[in-house]
Amino acid sequence: MKLALRELRRRPGRFVTATVILTLIASLLMLLGGLLDGLDSGATSAVLAQPGDVIVYSSGSDESFIRSRIDPDLRGSVDGVEGVEGSAGIGVAQLGARVPGAGPRDLADVVVFGHELAPDGVPPLDELDAGTGWADVSLREDGVREGMTLELGPRRTPIEVAGFVDGLQYSGQATLWVDPDTWRATLNENRPGSGLADGVFQALVVRAADGVDPEQLAGWIDDATDGATTSLSVEAAAAAIPGVEQQRSVFNQIISATVGVAVVVVALFFALLTVERIGMYGVLKALGARSSTLFGGVVLQAVAVTAAAALLGVVVAVALDLAIPAGSIPYELSPARVLGSVASLLVAAVIGSAFSLRRVLRIDPASAIGGTT
Amino acid sequence: MTTPTLQLTDVRKTYEVGGEEIVALDHATLTVEADEMVSLVGPSGSGKTTLCSIAGALLRATEGRVCVAGRDISDLGPKELARFRLESVGFVFQSVNLVPFLTARENLMVVDELGGRRRRRDARKRADQLLEELGLADRADNLAGQLSGGQRQRVAVGRALMNEPELVLFDEPTSALDTELGEQVMELIRTEMKSRGTAAVVVTHDDRITRFTDRTVRICDGVVEA
Lengths: 373, 226
What we know:
The structure holds two protein chains of two kinds.
Chain A: H1 2-10, H2 16-48, E1 54-58, H3 72-79, E2 84-98, E3 107-115, E4 132-136, E5 149-152, E6 157-165, E7 169-170, E8 173-178, H4 180-190, E9 203-208, H5 214-224, E10 229-233, H6 234-239, H7 244-276, H8 278-286, H9 291-323, H10 335-354, H11 357-362
Parallel strand pairs in A: 3-8, 4-6
Antiparallel strand pairs in A: 1-9, 1-10, 2-3, 2-5, 2-9, 4-8, 5-6, 7-8
Chain B: E1 6-17, E2 20-32, E3 37-41, H1 48-55, E4 63-68, E5 71-72, H2 78-88, E6 89-92, H3 104-115, H4 120-133, H5 149-161, E7 167-171, H6 179-196, E8 199-204, E9 215-220, E10 223-224
Parallel strand pairs in B: 3-8, 3-9, 6-7, 7-8
Antiparallel strand pairs in B: 1-2, 1-4, 4-5, 9-10
């Protein structure tokens, strides 16, 4: 092992090519991960921030807020289910918003969220007046400022921006958090065909009692309502947003392929180095070195080179995160993503270097003294 | 009477090549006493390297008994042979083969690092002592590539002696050196072996270096001549 580390220290030039290529792969991996997380967050963050464990839709709605209707009777049934600690109504209206100062056809896409209970990161309802709302910070890119009045939908329903909330988007669109009456009025004015009576919400956010599994509670709720509801845990509801699963699947396949390329790079590079070292390994084996010791050195070098490349990749990814203006590209670099990428690269290094094992095992110590076979 | 350091008895080594049996060593018998230096001389392909490899626990004999330092190693497995080499045999190879990115001292210490058994401070002390004996004290921190051919071969001799072996095998130790340097190295080898009472086998096809050894054994077509 010391031998392998000394070679890294004294002959760094030998490992530059692999380090550069692996740094590019690490950067790409983190960029892809950051984009996936950014897109995912842009699609699901408003749902994931809900202050509950289960989202209840009406059956036949395909887990879509727009198609779902929960009337007070149904809500009463849900609230009566054992394991339900409480529920809060929620509803959305996807509309185009006219921003003062912007062109007449330059609409900002906004999802108006009517809510009874403020999600994480949104001030409580009692801090919000009727006709006002908290806007997602991404609306700043569209020129929205605090105190500004947006005109929503074809009926130009005015809603004043009371302030901003951070990172709450739905299906790739900015959100505007208003009280239930403002939301219902906005929806009824602009989407008369989807209008709702007082007390009716599109969905319920249900809090589970302590120790109750949300997945299990979702089943109990649907059983109790005789199939009038379709309930999902908050995570499952986020995944059910159209396009989210497909997006995750495509990105994860690309990320897996990138890790696969890292395995190939490590395998080829260290196989080549092992071929170059056959003479040296033969001598070391003749002196008494075991194959496991020599192979351990190869793995150690592969892991060290990959770790250095991963570290450089993290620097690139973080620099990119700082350089990208907020809201311009859906790029979100989380510590979990960085750690996951580094870990997958290190696993790739171990797997890649394992391709040299057979070659190391086959080196005959007798070859050190002139080749006898 | 002391036990011989190397005792090959009726050793045979064969290889299968294209379904045909090639005899590399044919019932070879050789005894090397402790403190004895033996030249093994023969033309290319005569089997001297094979005999040296078997004596050094690098190869297993097809038939016959091989005893080194009083231990029968004929039936040892690869791991046990590696351990045996690490502890009991020293090698000096034809093409020197120092680890290029290590200093002279580290090339000596690598034997201990491979074994992982001696304390680093002890190994360093012993390496420095050997380099001093070999006239390389001022080159201890030089990388292998910064040493001359003769200095490299002297480091290789030091490496072979690091584990205090009972038998040292030299494979054409002067073939890469000019005549004068070759003679200096052989003189050094003889001095070091004799001062330690270590048995040595020097494989060569150069009759000129046989004068540095106690006895010459000739080998031809795998047959050791009496």
